[in-house]
Amino acid sequence: MNKKRVLIVDDEKEIADILRDFIANEGIEVMTAYDGEEAYNKFKSFSPSLVILDIMLPDDDGMEICRRIRNESDIPIIMLSAKDADIDKILSLGLGADDYLTKPFSPAVVVAHVKAHLRRYMATNNNDADKGLVIKNMMIDPKKHLVKIDGRQIELVNKEFEILWLLASNAGTVFTKEEIYDEIWGPDEFGEIGTVTVHIRKIRTKVEVDPANPTYIKTIWGVGYKLDDE
Which of 4, 79, 138, 190 has the fewest Cβ atoms surrounding its Cβ within 10 A? Predict the structure, then answer.
């Protein structure tokens, strides 16, 4: 699956439409539904790669729609609720939801969650990724957690490997520090964004011949980082 598609299900049309616009601005194809029946029909016809699903719907319980979708697909499901009750969270996650957000929320936060879940899902379901990647003279094997350059094994700790794999599996794509942090540490983690810079510096000392003039991980000033595959 290469096409990123998100289905937003919420009977509050204004919320659904705002989220649609924010997510579409990320280059993701988006469709909305405002009740359970429409949601399930569009799930079948639209084939989304992620669903944002309100727990309370006018004609059906959002958790029932979650259960039906999960019975047919392993795509990420993010549940929305106006209530912060633990029972809702336990029930929705128990039915197979991957994430839970309580209203009111910032659309930017929802977008961060969507992008993080989509990256993980797309990477997991990319059969080519299972075989590893070869970029220039660097080989990365995610299953073996192995990096080699010219046949020489490079020792990376877990977070360093995850960052390198994120950049390598999206070679040429520029990631901001915030996007890297959200993807590797999670959008709900509270920490210093500067830790991304520290980890990038450590990776460069291990994979670059001259860390001050990197050939793999390039800094795009004012934006972020990318792995150069050219």
Answer: 190
Cβ within 8 Å of residue 73, ≥6 positions away: 43
Residues 98 and 155 in one domain: no
Helices (H) and strands (E) in the chain, counts: 9, 11
Looking at the structure of the chain, the number of domains it has is 2
Residue 1 has a pLDDT of 47
Same domain, 104 and 11: yes
How many CA atoms lie within 13 Å of 100's alpha carbon, on the beta-carbon side? Answer: 21
Quote the tokens at residue 4: 């990123």
**CA gap 161, 146 in Å, rounded:** 8
Which amino acid, 100? Y
Average pLDDT in the chain: 86
The one-letter code for the residue type at 188 is D
Q: Map residue 172 onto helix, strand or coil.
A: coil
| Residue 101 structural domain | 5-124
**Tens of pLDDT along 81-132?**
877 665 566 566 677 888 888 888 899 999 999 988 888 787 666 655 556 7
Q: Are residues 47 and 29 in the same domain?
A: yes
Residue numbers of the chain with a pLDDT score lower than 50:
1
Same domain, 9 and 113: yes
